[in-house]
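To illustrate this point, we now present one chain and its tokenised fold:
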Amino acid sequence: MSRWTPCKRRDFIRRLRAPGFDGPLPGTRHSFMIYERHRLAIPSNTEYSVDQVRMMMAEVEAILGRGVTAAEWGRL
């Protein structure tokens, strides 16, 4: 069973492009990525903690309409 691990910002963005997210695009406070009509804010820090990754993945799951396991995330 895979576990969630900290993630570099660059890797997080690269992994989000696999399911079809576009960006990152500049915003007022944060950059954001777009999936169809949905926007996902991307914080500007260089590395995300496990808690941050899980929080953003909850938003990604809501946007995609399906769950993403840690094992699936590791394969992207």
User: Anything to note?
Assistant: The chain has a mean pLDDT of 85. Residues 33 and 40 are 5 Å apart (CA to CA). The helical segments are 9-17, 50-64, 70-75.
